[in-house]
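Extended Data, panel c. Modelled sequence:
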Amino acid sequence: EAAELEDSDLAEEGTLNARDRIRLALKALGEGTRSEINELVSDLAPGTMKKELAKLKELGETEETGEVRDRKQVVRLIGSGSEHIRGTGTGTDSTSTGEGLFEEKF
C-alpha cells in the first residue's frame, strides 16, 4: 500500500533533484531563510542551496518577503510551487529513462 508523504518528507527524498526538494521544503515551511530550508534538505551543500534558490528566483517561482531573520533574507514560493515538480519516483525524470529514444517515427 502506497503511503502519502508530506512535503517536508518529500524534501528529504534523494530521488528528487535539488530544485524540486527546495520547492517542497518551501511549500512545507510557507517561507524561510536558507538556513531554515537547509534543515529540511540537510544533505545539500550551501553552494547548491544558494544557486538553486537564485535560479528559482530568476524563474519567477520565489520572491523575497522583505523580512530578514538571522541576517538572512526570507523567501517564499509564488503560487503553489508544486506545478513544477516532476519525477517518476525512481530518481530519474521521464526524459532520462531512454524510453522512445530509438523508436522510428513515420
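The first strand starts at residue 62 and ends at 69. This feature is highlighted in the accompanying rendering.
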